[in-house]
Amino acid sequence: MKNYYLLFFLTASMVVSAQTKCDNANSYLGNAYSHVKDSYESNNISHLKHYANRSVESFKLAKEALSFCNCDKAVELAEKSIELLEKVESAETYEDGRFFVKRGRELSKESLIEIDKCAYNQYQKVAPSTTSVAVTNSSNSSELSDLQQEQLKLKQQQEALKLKAEQIKMQLAQQEAQELALRKQQIIKSYKARILENVKSYNETLKVYGSNTPINFEETVIDMETKSVSEIKSHYINEMKAITKNYLEALNQCEAS
């Protein structure tokens, strides 16, 4: 009996120790995802690089802790994320850096899901091995095994809930991205409508003053996914400035003729 208790507490101690490391890894991966998300949402290259570097630091801490978790897939994803995000520092343009950040953000999401899967699977494996030891002992040992099984069952349920929470978090992130895309579409539609209204008004005015050269609006296509709301706004303000400049030049020609 004494040997059994010693074996039980040694096993439990090893499980708890390993799990603590995995919990640390999970926390570091969560920080890495948070930083790379901030980097992706940055509107200038300085902030882009700053948060990308912070994400790399968290990924490196996660990788160290993951060595105790027996979760090769999460390690692989962390390494790929580090490799991508380290390239951001040498990127010469905002667009180049954001290309690596976007892919790093996707991989960080996958790493969070993988470590939760690993944690759940490890608890599934621990339960039968512990039970088999208890069966070989006395009725007191059997009672202790039953208690242990209940504890493991509770822990499994907690891990399942934790995994579900992570999945919900990913779904919310996707929903936020969809809402942002819809908002951008609405903003672009509004800006274009305003420009077209101004072009129509300008051309009517020029016609009154005898101009036969109307002003045209030739829209420059932009990548909505890679542009922030403020960048989209700046783009259409510049479009409006260019159209207004052409209008004023046309008015000057009317005055000179």
Give the SSE layout:
Layout: H1 2-40, H2 45-66, H3 72-85, H4 94-135, H5 139-208, H6 229-256
Question: Helicity range of the residues?
Answer: over 70%
Spatial extent as radius of gyration = 30 Å
- Tell how many strands the DSSP assignment holds: 0
Overall average residue pLDDT: 79
Word description of this protein:
With 257 residues, this protein is mainly alpha-helical. The chain contains six helices and no strands. It starts with a helix and ends with a helix. The relative contact order is 0.08.
What keyword list fits this structure?
mainly alpha; 257 residues; 0% strand; disordered N terminus; 6 helices; single chain
In short:
The protein has 257 residues and is mainly alpha-helical.
